[in-house]
């Protein structure tokens, strides 16, 4: 029985649970809800939950567990050397699954009877040709162990499906019966239902933790696999990056890190002064009318997708810098360069710094400004000597967060910085960053067993650690040095 | 702070000041006033620069992109010769299908050249290949589909309109000129001269092109027939799924954290994680999606489902932060009143706090979705940058598992092709993307204006 049908039946049983429990509660209370402990609907919901939640949970666990279990069982078919290597093992089981589903299709179309599918042997002729007649294309000829494994796979899946169906039914009906029997006017249905709802709420809020765990685990395991193939010291300290998909790659992090930091530095040179001065002007000088127009306009920049900035870098900023700066100065003739990417990322970060700094400056109490102005300082003196020092920790935090965004920015550098990994000081040269290389190593058809692909996970891990460190540093600065007013 | 102000060169600290009128400024005052004006100007310049950059960016994109919505087409009568298209003469669908697009291409080229001769349009030195080369390579396929769908057309003369190639289209839009054509192997000067005549005669015309919004992507050779159809469907599927995934989970998590969570280690851990996830670079989520959803869970690559899962994880922190703010904005008096008349904590939240916070929650969700719509980097890693020409199935037929692209990814993949016609398409795609963003943001603002309550 298909999972979908099973879920539909569980849904029907759950609705039946709702109706039956609600009716029973009302009937036992003599038709007046006032005699019940909880409102009648809570009895209904209790029936619904009892009929659905345990059944669905077990079903989900079963669906995840069954393939893993079957693979373990089938390992016995193959000689140990065939499944030693993880990659070979994955491929082999993909083959087994494909043959098994091919047999399923053949049976469904009537090209094979159920019996034939279970007893077909490679000795009787090519299985691949027979499956090809029903439209199942297999990459290579089916070997006897694979066929044998596929037949067993089908058998086990069939048994598994029957077991799954029975177990789900038993749980759903059992839950329903239990719920009906538990229903009586004294039963505290509302409390029970609220407990379940609370559990759901807690579960939802732990997704944030699960995501972090998922990020760290997925990158850590693949990075460790990478370091078994490629020495970690070479990755962290080598000065060359020249991946080669035929092997013998040099995968040094340093040129990429240099490009990343250089571009981020340029972007901060653009974003910090402009963002900070706009924030100061908006917070201290601008009239309410100007502020109400300009502030949303600057925030429009933040709402524009980064790929738009990428195209802007590629089509407008890059050629402009090349034609008017790089070529006349003799510094290079590449449209994509550190300057292109840096300036555009800087523009992207202006609203980020400006709105954070604006909030921080506004949080400095007015009394401090009044004190300074009262002593005869001009407005700019007040800002420079009183407001900014007071806001400094917050502004530092904002700057660090902007830096972490610049380091993690992907689309602008992919489209505007170039792809050549080099250690160079010339800002009009094309350089590349960690994020660009993650994209280029992982896009396209890739096998996850070569160091050239897996290096992307190590790069991702480095990127994650750097940005996380910057963000934590920002938090610490803000927490530690924040002035507490009032 | 006191140090800072003491170090200030205060007027009082200048004892040398003689008897001067208050109305004449001394040097120090002038200097200080000049510094004041300078400082104010820096701020003004900063604002002007950032707004100018925004304006330049939008201007270039609209300048390059609006022409993508218009497309040159060539319209001429074509006779569907029975001897070419149905040599057997039986109108048997299987026989008809044996005639390939090459056969149709030859037919179109021949008929177009004949038509020009019949109309007396001649350009010196133009070859037949040049003439047929003005019609998009997309036309034979379209004509073939038309004939296969309706075999009774064979033998008739019909009015056929086909896209002109990207270069001819570019010539009409001013992107290609006679000078550039001389250097370009894909277009000849004679073709452009012919194009001038055809435009005068009304055979070649430029008009609004619906195909840009509905066609699937096309190969490097056919920029004129590339469209956003699949990208728009893909983005639409993803946004619907993101909404379905994030709204319930986000609201549930926020309710727990705002209303129920005790102050303990677990709550702290959750809070720290949410704020950190909001700062993790988007590409890291792409790696997560690749490793977990595709490699581990075996979900299909390039599908909108995987894209939506990845984007949901990214958007969740944003939505949780917005929702928590909305829930916090509901005054405690509401909760006290509900608790006071005997509602349980859960009933208070679900019957009173949540409905009052709903406008704020929806506004935050729409804004979160708007930023999710523009997300590109993680989608590149899960294969949504692939070249997809088949429309995904309907949402109920498992279309979310079919390969698709998304609007911002389409912008990227067109921008990385060499033909300048694709830059125009790319900018056009940005205009479509920005239009969606504007609609979503305006909806959020209206929602806020209409329902926001100040307590």
What does this protein look like?
The complex is a heterodimer of chains A (486) and B (455). Chain A has helices spanning 3-28, 40-74, 86-109, 114-119, 127-133, 144-182, 189-205, 207-229, 232-237, 254-285, 288-303, 306-329, 338-363, 366-374, 379-408, 411-416, 434-442, 451-481; strands at 241-242, 250-251. By secondary structure, chain A is mostly helical. Chain A folds into two domains: 3-194, no CATH class; 236-481, MetI-like (MetI-like fold, Orthogonal Bundle). Chain A has a two-stranded antiparallel ribbon with strand order 1-2. In chain A, β1 (241-242) and β2 form a beta hairpin. The mean pLDDT of chain A is 86. Chain B is built from 20 helices and three strands. In chain B, α2 (27-65) packs across α20 and α5 (101-119) packs across α7. Chain B is mostly helical and 455 residues long. Chain B folds into two domains: 68-209, no CATH class; 229-451, MetI-like fold. In chain B, 64% of the residues lie in helices and 5% in strands. At the A-B interface, α7, α8, α10, α11 and α12 of A face α2, α12, α13, α14 and α15 of B.
Question: Summary?
Answer:
The complex is a heterodimer of chains A (486) and B (455). Chain A is an all-alpha fold and 486 residues long. Chain A has helices at residues 3-28, 40-74, 86-109, 114-119, 127-133, 144-182, 189-205, 207-229, 232-237, 254-285, 288-303, 306-329, 338-363, 366-374, 379-408, 411-416, 434-442, 451-481, and strands spanning 241-242, 250-251.
């Amino acid at each position: 029985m298909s999972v979908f049908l099973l879920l539909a039946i569980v849904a029907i049983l759950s609705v039946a649970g709702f109706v039956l429990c609600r009716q029973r509660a009302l009937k036992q209370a003599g038709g007046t809800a006032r005699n019940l402990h909880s409102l009648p609907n809570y009895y209904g919901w209790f029936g619904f939950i009892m009929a659905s939640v345990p059944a669905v949970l077990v079903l989900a666990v079963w669906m995840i567990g069954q393939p893993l279990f079957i693979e373990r069982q089938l390992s016995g078919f193959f000689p140990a050397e065939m499944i030693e290597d993880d990659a070979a093992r994955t491929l082999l089981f993909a083959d087994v699954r494909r043959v098994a589903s091919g047999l399923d299709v053949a049976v469904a179309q009537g090209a094979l009877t159920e019996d034939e599918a279970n007893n077909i042997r490679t000795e009787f002729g090519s299985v691949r040709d027979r499956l090809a007649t029903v439209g199942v294309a297999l990459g290579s000829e089916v070997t006897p162990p694979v066929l044998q494994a596929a037949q067993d796979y089908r058998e086990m899946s069939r048994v598994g499906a029957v077991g799954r169906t029975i177990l789900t039914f038993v749980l759903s009906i059992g839950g329903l019966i239990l719920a009906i029997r538990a229903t009586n006017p004294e039963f505290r249905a509302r409390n029970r239902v609220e407990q379940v709802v609370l559990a759901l709420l807690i579960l939802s809020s732990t997704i944030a933790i699960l995501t972090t765990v998922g990020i760290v685990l997925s990158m850590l395991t693949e990075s460790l696999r990478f370091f078994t193939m490629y020495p970690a010291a070479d990755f962290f300290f080598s000065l060359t990056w020249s991946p080669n998909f035929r092997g013998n790659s040099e995968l040094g992090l340093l040129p990429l890190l240099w490009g990343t930091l250089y571009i981020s530095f340029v972007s901060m040179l653009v974003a910090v002064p402009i963002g900070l001065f706009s924030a100061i002007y908006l917070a201290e000088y601008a009239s309410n009318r100007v502020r109400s127009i300009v502030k949303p306009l600057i925030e429009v920049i933040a709402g524009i997708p980064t790929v738009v900035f990428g195209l802007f870098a590629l089509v407008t900023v890059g050629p402009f810098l090349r034609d008017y700066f790089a070529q006349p100065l003799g510094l290079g003739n590449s449209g994509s360069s550190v300057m292109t990417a840096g300036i555009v990322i800087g523009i992207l970060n202006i609203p980020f710094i400006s709105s954070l700094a604006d909030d921080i400056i506004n949080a400095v109490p007015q009394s401090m400004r009044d004190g300074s102005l009262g002593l005869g300082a001009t407005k700019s003196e007040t800002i420079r000597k009183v407001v900014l020092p007071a806001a400094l920790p917050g502004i530092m935090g904002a700057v660090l967060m902007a830096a972490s965004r610049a380091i993690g920015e992907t689309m602008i550098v992919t489209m505007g910085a170039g792809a050549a990994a080099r250690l160079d000081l010339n800002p009009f040269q094309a350089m590349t960053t960690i994020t660009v290389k993650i994209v280029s190593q992982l896009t396209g058809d890739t096998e996850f067993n070569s160091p050239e692909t897996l290096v992307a996970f190590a790069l991702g891990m480095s990127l994650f650690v750097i940005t996380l460190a910057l963000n934590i540093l920002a938090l610490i600065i803000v927490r530690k040095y924040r002035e507490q007013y009032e | 702070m006191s140090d800072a102000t003491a170090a200030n060169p205060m007027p009082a600290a200048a004892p040398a000041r003689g008897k001067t009128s208050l109305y004449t400024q001394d040097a120090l005052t002038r200097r200080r006033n000049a510094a004041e004006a300078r400082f104010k100007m820096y701020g003004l310049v900063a604002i002007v620069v950032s707004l100018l950059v925004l304006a330049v960016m939008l201007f270039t994109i609209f300048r390059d992109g609006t022409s993508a919505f218009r497309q040159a087409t060539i319209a001429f009568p074509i006779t569907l010769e029975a001897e070419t298209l149905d040599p057997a003469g039986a109108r048997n669908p299987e026989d008809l299908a044996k005639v390939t697009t090459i056969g149709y291409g030859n037919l179109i080229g021949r008929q177009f050249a004949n038509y020009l001769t019949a109309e007396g349009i001649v350009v010196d030195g133009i070859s037949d290949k040049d003439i047929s080369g003005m019609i998009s390579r997309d036309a034979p396929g379209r004509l073939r589909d038309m004939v296969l769908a309706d075999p009774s057309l064979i033998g008739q003369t019909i009015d056929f309109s086909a896209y002109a190639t990207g270069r001819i289209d570019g010539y009409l839009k001013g992107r290609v000129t006679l000078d550039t054509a001389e250097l370009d192997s894909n277009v000849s000067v004679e073709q452009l001269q012919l194009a001038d005549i055809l435009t005068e005669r009304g055979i070649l015309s430029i008009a609004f092109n619906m195909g840009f919004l509905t066609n699937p992507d096309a190969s490097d050779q056919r920029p004129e027939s590339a469209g956003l159809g699949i990208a728009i469907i893909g983005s639409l599927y993803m946004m619907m799924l993101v909404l379905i995934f994030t709204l319930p989970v986000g609201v549930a998590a926020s309710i727990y954290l705002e209303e129920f969570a005790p102050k303990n280690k677990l709550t702290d851990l959750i809070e720290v994680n949410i704020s950190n996830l909001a700062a993790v670079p988007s590409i890291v989520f792409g790696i997560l999606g690749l490793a977990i959803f595709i490699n581990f869970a075996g979900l299909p690559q390039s599908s909108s489902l995987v894209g939506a899962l990845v984007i949901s994880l990214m958007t969740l922190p944003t939505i949780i932060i917005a929702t928590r703010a909305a829930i916090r904005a509901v005054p405690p008096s509401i909760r006290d009143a509900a608790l006071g008349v005997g509602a349980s904590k859960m009933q208070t939240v679900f019957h009173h706090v949540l409905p009052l916070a709903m406008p704020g929650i929806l506004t935050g969700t729409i804004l979160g979705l708007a930023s999710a719509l523009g997300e590109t980097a993680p989608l590149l890693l899960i294969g949504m940058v692939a070249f997809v020409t088949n429309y995904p199935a309907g949402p109920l037929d498992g279309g979310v598992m079919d390969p698709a692209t998304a609007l911002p990814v389409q912008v990227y993949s067109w921008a990385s092709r060499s033909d300048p016609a694709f830059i125009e398409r790319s900018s056009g795609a940005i205009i479509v993307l920005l239009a969606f963003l504007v609609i979503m943001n305006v909806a959020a603002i209206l929602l806020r204006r209409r329902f926001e309550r100040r307590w």
